[in-house]
Amino acid sequence: MCGESGIATFRDAQSGLWKDFDPKDLASPEGWTADSDLVWGWYRWRAELVRRSEPNAGHLALAQWQHRAHVDIATQNVDDLHERAGATVLSHVHGSLFEPYCSDCGTRAELDAGAADAPGESDQRVPPPECPLCGGLIRPGAVWFGESLPEAAWEAAEDAVRHADLVLVVGTSGVVYPFAGLPAIARSAGATVVEINPVETEVSDMADHRWRTTAAVGLPALVERL
Prior knowledge:
Largest sheet: 3 strands, parallel
Pfam family, one: SIR2
Subcellular location: Cytoplasm
Main location: cytoplasm
Helix content: 25-40%
Protein name: NAD-dependent protein deacylase
Organism: Rhodococcoides yunnanense
Structural class: alpha/beta
Shape: elongated
Oligomer: single chain
C-alpha cells in the first residue's frame, strides 16, 4: 500500500530502496555493528520520505471501515500511514520507523524531530543518539534480516486471522515469512481470504478470491459497497 503514497518499494531494480545498497549493510545486526552511522542516517532518510508522503485512498478507506465495524489491521509496513489516515493498527509485525529503541537495554526512544525536516541523501552518515538510561546506541525500530519478529505483534496478528471471518491480503509480494503464511493460517481456521493486488504473488494460491487491482482503487470500492 505504501507505493501508492509515493514511497519507494525495496526490490524495484530502478527505484527500489535497495538499488544502491546491499540489504545486509543496512538491515541486519551485522550492518549495524559495522557502520551504525550509515544505518542510522539511512533510516532517518527513510523516515523523511515517509513524513513527506500522505496516506492514499486505500489507507483512508480502511480507516473509514474500521470506524463502522470491527476491522483489525496487521501490517508489514514500517511507516505510520495507517495511523495518519485515522486507523488503529493492531500489529506492526516488522516494527516501525517511528519507534526506535536502545540496542543495549531496549528502552524506547523518540525519533528526533529534525529527522523529518532535514534534507539528506540515502548514504548520509549520522551518528545515532545515546540512550539516556544506559548510554547504548539508539537503533531503528524496524525488524532486520536475521531478527525475530516482536513476539507480541506476531501473536496479535496470528490471533486476529485465526478468529476472522474475512481476511484481506493487500499489496504484499508474499515472499517474507512468517507474515506471508498468515493467509494459509486464516483459511485453515475457516476464514474467507481475498487478495487485492494488481499482479500474481506468492500467496495468490492461498486466496479464495483474487482481485487484480490496487489498494487505492479496490479498498474504497469495497468499503463503499459495504
